[in-house]
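Supplementary Methods. Inverse-folding protocol.

Structures were first reduced to a discrete structure-token string of length 406. This string, shown here, constituted the complete conditioning input.
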């Protein structure tokens, strides 16, 4: 580039015949004239090189070869599915009479997804559930592990447990804490379920009894987490996480939680309702965790336990990374000049997912195929999910038995 500038300067300044043709006498130029001329030459050269770079990059993009099938298989997220099932998980268009799925340029790296976070639970005649935790965009950028964890487990043919834990962003080991709390909670609450013989009571429990059982179970989880931290050399505060736990059945749902996140269910009248009220502090993004100093006489202010006595046709649990995309949770009231939280699931978000799961079930898709579809949806199913900076966890269960229960 320096050579080009030198040659152009020499040609323009030293070539008197060229100056005469332009009507310019370079011999009369003073120092400032030469400086101005030199700046003009630099600008012209820069514009020239910029045009060359733009043309080259455009040409390279248009002439690049398509990726082979072998390379596509090495990706964690593939751009084709094994079966052309219209499950309404993705935006689709038609090309050459074939179903084509549009994917975002943003993809999740292979090591960003921890397979134990995903469980497909299905029984012969009753429940069909799917869950997944996906790392957030900001976590990938900042090299932070996925701090969410979810767990699904059937207790018997009618009853199951669903759990979502969201690790605190400020706690360095919260990804370890969320996994431990989710798995430990499943063990403890399954034990409570069997001990209390809840499967024999179709009327479910009174709310006050369930609140006491939930507090007892969660406190046992907290104690086990303390022991785990001590044995492994962690500060227990570094394992901080929230928890949402639901014991679901065709007769109703028992739910309890500490912290934020969302949970909802689909009623017999095809209406989506919320199951919990997320705990929010006075500051933005402020909440409490299972490791917080809540285990005192005021613990009922931080643990919410409810019993849904309506027959659920579907249910959902999620971390707060999914709430803005699937819940009505922020509306400005012009009369009060305040923001309100209706805390209502979006039917337009959940209904297509419910239908999609039903179609995949009817198509006898394998667990691996369903896991892949669910992963694709949480990663790039909508533009807002693609750009979500926080980790995303979503559990969805549907009741598939249309026969009357005894």
């Amino acid at each position: 580039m320096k050579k080009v500038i030198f040659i152009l300067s020499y040609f323009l300044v030293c070539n008197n015949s060229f100056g005469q043709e332009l009507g310019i006498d370079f011999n009369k130029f003073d120092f400032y004239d030469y400086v101005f001329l030199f700046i003009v030459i630099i600008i012209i050269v820069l514009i020239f090189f910029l045009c060359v770079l733009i043309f080259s990059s455009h040409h390279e993009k248009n002439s690049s070869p398509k990726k082979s099938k072998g390379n596509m298989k090495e990706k964690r997220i593939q751009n084709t599915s094994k079966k052309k099932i219209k499950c309404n998980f993705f935006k689709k268009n038609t090309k050459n009479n074939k179903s084509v799925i549009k994917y975002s340029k943003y993809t999740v790296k292979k090591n960003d997804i921890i397979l134990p976070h995903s469980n497909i639970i299905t029984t012969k005649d009753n429940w069909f559930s799917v869950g997944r935790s996906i790392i957030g965009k900001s976590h990938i950028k900042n090299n932070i592990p996925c701090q969410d964890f979810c767990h699904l487990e059937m207790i018997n043919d009618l009853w199951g447990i669903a759990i979502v834990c969201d690790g605190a962003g400020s706690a360095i080991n919260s990804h370890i804490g969320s996994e431990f709390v989710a798995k430990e909670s499943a063990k403890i609450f399954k034990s409570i379920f069997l001990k209390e013989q809840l499967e024999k009571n179709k009327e479910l429990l009174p709310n006050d009894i369930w609140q006491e059982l939930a507090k007892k179970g969660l406190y046992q989880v907290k104690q086990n987490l303390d022991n785990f931290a001590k044995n492994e050399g962690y500060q227990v505060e570094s394992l901080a996480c929230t928890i949402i736990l639901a014991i679901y059945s065709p007769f109703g749902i028992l739910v309890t939680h500490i912290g934020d996140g969302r949970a909802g269910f689909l009623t017999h009248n095809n209406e989506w309702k919320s199951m919990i009220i997320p705990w929010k502090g006075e500051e933005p993004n402020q909440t409490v965790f299972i490791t917080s100093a809540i285990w005192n006489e005021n613990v009922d202010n931080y643990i919410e336990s409810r019993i849904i006595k309506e027959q659920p046709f579907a249910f959902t649990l999620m971390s707060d990374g999914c709430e803005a995309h699937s819940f009505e949770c922020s509306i400005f009231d012009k009369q009060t000049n305040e923001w309100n939280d209706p805390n209502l699931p979006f039917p337009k978000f959940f209904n297509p997912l419910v239908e999609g799961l039903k179609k995949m079930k009817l198509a006898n898709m394998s667990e691996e195929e369903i896991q892949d579809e669910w992963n694709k949806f949480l990663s790039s199913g909508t533009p807002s999910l693609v750009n979500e900076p926080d980790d995303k966890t979503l559990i969805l269960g549907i009741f598939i038995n249309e026969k009357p229960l005894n």
